[in-house]
Amino acid sequence: MAEKQVMVVGIDDSEHSFYALEWTLDHFFTPESKTLFKLVVVHARCSPMSVLGLAGPGSTDVLPLVEADLKRIAEKVNEKAQDLCSSKSVEDVTVETIEGDARNVMCEAAEKYHASVLVLGSHGYGAFKRAVLGSVSDYCSHHAHCSVMIVKKPKHKN
Questions:
Q1: Core vs surface per residue 30-67: b (16+ CB within 10 A) or e
Q2: What is the pLDDT of residues 21-56, one digit of tens each?
Q3: Within a domain: residue 26?
Q4: Is residue 72 in a domain?
Q5: How far are the Cα atoms of 5, 129, 143, 156 from residue 9, in angstroms, in the given order?
Q6: If DSSP codes are grouped into helix, strand and coil, which group holds residue 24?
Q7: Sheet order of strands, 117-122 included
Q8: 22, β-bridge pairs
Q9: Could you give the CA distance from residue 95 to residue 82 in angstroms, rounded to a whole number?
Q10: Is residue 158 part of a domain?
Q11: Is residue 78 within a helix (H) or strand (E), and if so which, with residue range?
């Protein structure tokens, strides 16, 4: 029997990334099709130093606090992802946290797992915010060595 293709889903602590994960589970891991892909969920955790940035003298005093907070957030994100997968009866899933810039982490994870598809949520930033912050999905769509699917959460009509 041929080995399953791999689908990597990138998550962070945003509702957009969890929408993308849920959408992926609902469309690709249904009881009829769950044997097509192996699922790998990757959370990119930024480094404590990147959070502190140019905080200046004394910033190393808070480094352990920032590290603990980032670790706690990552554990919460991974647990939430695992729970969502379990609620959809998807048990064959790898959930991993990798420290680094999300753009590089996602492209490297897709390569590491030999992914056929990399799935990312879209935060829906406007052109200015995207230019300032950078877009993980835009970067990955140009640099990942596999297909990239960007899942946008629909806007609710009032």
A1: eeeebeebbbbbbbbbbebeeeeeeeeeeeeeeeeebe
A2: 999 999 999 877 756 889 999 999 987 776 666 555
A3: yes
A4: yes
A5: 13, 23, 16, 24
A6: helix
A7: 93-99, 37-45, 5-11, 117-122, 147-152
A8: none
A9: 7
A10: no
A11: helix 59-87
Determine the pLDDT at residue 67: 86
Q: What is the count of structural domains for the chain?
A: 1
Q: What is the pTM of this model?
A: 0.86
The amino acid sitting at 62 is: V
Q: What residue has token string 């930024």?
A: 46
Residue ranges with strand state E in the chain: 5-11, 37-45, 93-99, 117-122, 147-152
Identity (one letter) of the amino acid at 95?
A: V
Say if residue 101 is exposed, middle or buried (CB neighbours under 10 Å; 0-12, 13-18, 19+): middle
List all residues 6 or more positions away from 98 whose beta carbon is below 8 Å from its beta carbon: 42, 43, 44, 45, 105, 108, 109
What is the extent of the structural domain holding 133? 5-152
What is the maximum span of the chain, computed from C-alpha positions, in angstroms? 59
DSSP 32: T
Indicate the SS3 state at residue 30: coil
